[in-house]
Design goal:
Blueprint lengths: L6 E6 L6 H11 L2 E7 L12 E3 L4 H15 L3 E4 L5 H11 L6 H8 L1 H10 L8 E4 L4 H5 L6 E5 L9 E3 L2 H17 L8 E6 L4 E10 L2 E10 L12 E4 L5 H18 L4 E10 L2 E8 L19 H9 L13 E7 L5 E7 L1 H5 L4 E6 L6 E2 L10 E7 L2 H13 L2 E5 L11
Helix pairs in contact: 1-9, 2-3, 3-4, 4-5
């Protein structure tokens, strides 16, 4: 049987931070790529030079993309972001390619299914309850325990995740989430929300890789900024972790157990956990790699980047030297302070001169609209740092961020058009 070429298919979105990193990694490894972008059907006619599909129309997208993959011959279908994880599993299953089972991919994508599987497997995680987005929230609020966290089942990146401390804030949170879902074109009549107890504690992120169900740790990040709500915008990631080694071992074990509970068996894993006196609690676990431009700080003993490692793993190459380089590294996802029109980010040269800072990238273009969480889906940019220890890295990131001056103009009101 003829061996398929070293070619992979990437499922991505037009606004993804991650596509360029995967394409550059593939070029360095000599792996060919096909890129399929999630594009609503009415817009596909305007993008004739690339492959497109509407990821929300799962059945049609699976058929279309599988046919493209058959035509060109690929060894793997790789989701770049959350939006493509279930679709990638469906396509790979149809083509007989190594992948996660579609049910497992869905469990890592849908917060309610995730909570049910984690609870059934005895993985420490918040005990959630699901309810229709259009349920009577006033009466539902009376049965809630507070504080709780309300979230949509499918959005990612902390969008729509809101803490409620009492019945009034619960109802307001649900109303706000409904508005976010509606703006994304999601039918509220079929949408579900999840409410779960707020878990206090120190938050960490885990980056790992699964091979035939075996979990390998790639990086454990501290998130030194408190994430207590009402919204949960991530800012600083620093590795190596400063937690005691025994606690780190518990975090890794909990992540591996959670991946097994969801049924994930291959590819990258990104998890968020809270740690308190009761130990680690799994908050989220996704079947994809770290988001944004955060992966730039990761480099492994073989010299591979995270994306190179994922691609090599996907085409079946044996991997060695998966230990991260020993120096301390960190990234700040620059938060959007308020909604408006970005006019300028000043002080970049001054911030870049802070010892330990290795780069600053502003990803939002000037004169573009910016929206903070919980409605927003992006960051202002990223600050990268390297140093001899995690505290030094964290300090450099904070000093650099303090030197940035972000100028935002208010949005002009939309005026109605009147005729006489």
């Amino acid at each position: 049987m003829e061996t398929a070429p070293r070619r992979v298919m990437l499922l991505t979105t037009p606004t993804s931070y991650r596509t360029a990193a995967f394409l550059q990694a593939a070029q360095r490894l000599g792996i060919e790529t096909l890129v399929v972008e999630d594009t609503p059907a009415p817009l596909q006619q305007f993008l004739p030079l690339r492959f497109t599909a509407d990821f929300r129309d799962t059945a049609r997208a699976t058929e279309r993309i599988a046919e493209i993959a058959r035509q060109y011959g690929v060894r793997a279908v790789i989701p770049v972001d959350d939006s493509g994880t279930v679709l990638a599993a469906l396509i790979a299953q149809r083509l007989g390619l190594p992948s996660n089972d579609p049910d497992a991919a869905l469990a890592a994508r849908d917060k309610w299914i995730m909570r049910q599987r984690l609870a059934a497997a005895g993985v420490p995680s918040p005990r959630a309850q699901a309810f229709p987005a259009l349920a009577d929230m006033t009466s539902l609020a009376r049965s809630m325990s507070f504080p709780c966290v309300v979230k949509p089942t499918r959005l990612s990146g902390s969008r729509g995740v809101i803490r409620a401390d009492d019945p009034v804030s619960f109802v307001r949170a649900v109303e706000r989430i409904r508005s976010i879902l509606t703006s994304d074109g999601i039918d509220l009549r079929t949408a579900e929300l999840v409410a779960e107890p707020f878990v206090p504690g120190f938050e960490v992120a885990v980056e790992g890789l699964l091979t035939d169900g075996a979990f390998r740790l790639l990086a454990l990040f501290d998130k030194p900024d408190p994430l207590d709500g009402p919204f949960f915008e991530e800012t600083i990631y620093v590795t190596p972790s400063r937690l005691p080694p025994a606690v780190q071992d518990e975090i890794v074990a909990a992540t591996a157990k959670a991946a097994r509970a969801l049924g994930l068996r291959t590819g990258p894993v990104h998890a968020e956990l809270r740690v308190n006196e009761a130990g680690p609690w799994v908050i989220e676990l996704a079947g994809r790699s770290i988001g944004g431009l955060c992966s730039r700080i990761l480099e492994f003993d073989t010299g591979l980047s995270l994306e190179e490692l994922i691609l090599a793993h996907a085409v079946g190459e044996q991997l060695a030297g998966l230990e991260r380089r020993p120096d301390a590294v960190g990234v700040m996802m620059i938060p959007i302070p308020r909604a408006g029109i970005l006019k300028d980010v000043e002080g970049i040269e001054e911030a870049s001169s802070v010892p330990g800072i290795t780069g600053i990238e502003i990803t939002v273009k000037r004169n573009h609209r910016i929206v903070p969480l919980p409605e927003g889906a992006s960051y202002l940019g990223f600050i990268f740092a390297r140093g001899s220890d995690p505290t030094e890295v964290e300090t450099a990131l904070r000093f650099a961020h303090a030197r940035l001056r972000i100028r935002i103009a208010p949005e002009l009101p939309v005026l109605g058009v009147y005729t006489t």
